[in-house]
Amino acid sequence: MAKTLFKSFGYKAMHIAVLSLFSLLLIPILLTHWDLELYGTWITIITIFNLIQVLEFGHASYVGNQFNQLVHQDTAAAKMVLGSAWRANVVMGIVQLTLVVLLYMSGVLAFFLDTHINTAHVAIVLGILFCYRMAIGSFRGIVVKTLNPFGLIYKSFQFAVIEKIVEFFILVYAAVANLSLIRLAMVWFLTKSCYSFLVLFQLKRLLPAYFPWWKSGSFQLGIINMKRSIPFAVSNFLDRLGNDGVVLLLSAFVGTSFLPLFVATRTLVNFGLKISDLLRTPLAPELINLYAKNKLKKITDVFKLYWFITGVALMGGFILSLWFIESLFEFWTRGNLSFNLALFNLLVVILLFQNYGRIITAFFMGINKTNVVLLTSVMRTILFFTVAFLFKGYGWYGIVFGMLFSELFVVSLWLPYHAYATLSVEKEQKPGFILPLFAILSVAGVLYVHYALPTFWAEMLLLIPIGALFYLQYKHIAPKTRNMVLKDVAKLLTFTSKPKGNAQ
Questions:
Q1: Residues 275/38, Cβ–Cβ less than 8 Å
Q2: How far apart are the C-alpha atoms of 135 and 191, rounded to whole Å?
Q3: Burial class (CB in 10 A: 0-12, 13-18, 19+), 337
């Protein structure tokens, strides 16, 4: 078990590293070979593709969970679920292609693109991408989930890492060879189909008892399970819409050519979330275990520990980056994009608020507080689009402000309120929840001063309250937890030291 968990965590870390490198290496290559409009059009296409694709992800999550529950109790029923999913995916593929046609015919697709961009070509590209999903990609994603109950989840991370590398080379080849977006989509279809067949061959070898996966099942059961997966699909769609909706609004109200700058800046900023994921991922199962044992105070202590460690790392890192980020950005993008400090600062503050809320959301998801998770997604999405539309006249500032306001409301009021109720947080414990938010606001002050009044000593003066808030956060962590962390750090520091005695 320990060996399996170690492998899973290792491949998860590798997956995060590959996702980070994917954007860091790909963006400068695409900027070199594509103009801003073509690159922005591809960003819009892939955003719409990901949003519609969420429908099948909700179905895959439901089927995967159902298979996990049945596989060790009723193998025949598990095979029925798997075979029915293949039939449902055909229906799902037709629905997705129909949505693409409706978006094109209704003019909605044209709304998100610059007026002179050929929307018919964009619709064809989306159609080709969804044909791949219907043909093999979607069902392959479901079959991969059969690995989970057999302790082979690390294999799914392995497949995901390789697939991301394949996508990287597809895009690089398309850019260097100067392919049109339609030809790019065709290469995408053929290459990823071949890779999917290789993955399915590996799955057949690993779990031969469940092959052929499509033999059992029925359309009726497939449609029933597809209907039951609607809450998963809605929740995932709203989360994706809150994240990618900003791209579509920027494309519609600011222009397609602005998207490469936004995506490049957000890629640099979001690297911080990838770092915090390395801590949050192993903490999530521990939070579920503590909740099952009714150790509610210990859970709040884990929250505080997460906020302190990630806060020191992320806030300290972003403040230090202010003195070199512009030069780094221009070097990274090879001078094809001009760094925008205001955009960078706002995205940093948004990320810090997101990081605060992610550990609470992960906890609610782990204990199946589905209503809270769904309502959080609904509230965040409604607030974002409401504020963004109200302030759309201010260009990208209004849209990004919508992101900031929705995130601030959710993490400062909505999530803490439900955390207090679920964990029975007492009055003396609440400052531990509030202090990290004040630290974020203090960092926002430093970023504003650096932008509006770049005075070194004024910025240094503002670092004093941030240091004090970090100290208070540390003091609010239980001594036992603090000592445990210090011991773990000491182990890491002595990891390479020579063992005593004659080790064989």
A1: no
A2: 13
A3: buried
Mean pLDDT calculated for residue range 183-188: 96
Amino acid at 205: R
Are the CB atoms for 247 and 45 separated by under 8 Å?
Answer: no
| Residues ≥6 apart with Cβ < 8 Å to 175 | 29, 30, 32, 33, 34
DSSP state of 34: S
CB of 322 closer than 8 Å to CB of 240: no
Helix spans in 177-229 (H): 181-206, 219-228
Cα 338 versus chain centre, distance:
26
Distance of CA 232 to the CA centre of its chain: 16
State the DSSP H helix or E strand holding residue 365, giving kind and residue range, or none if neither. helix 341-366
Residue 20, both tokens: 């980070």
Highest mean pLDDT: which of 56-60, 327-331, 493-497?
327-331
Structure tokens of 275? 């770092």
Q: Dump pLDDT digits (tens) for 268-292.
A: 898 888 778 777 776 777 787 788 8
Mean pLDDT of 479-488: 63
CA atoms within 13 A on the CB side of 76: 0
Residue 288 CA to residue 303 CA, distance in Å, equals 13
| Residue 484, pLDDT score | 59
Q: Give dist(CA 18, CA 363) in Å, integer.
A: 26
> What's the rounded Cα separation, in Å, for the pair 200 and 384?
40
Q: What is the pLDDT, as a whole number, of residue 5? A: 41
Residue 1 has a pLDDT of 40
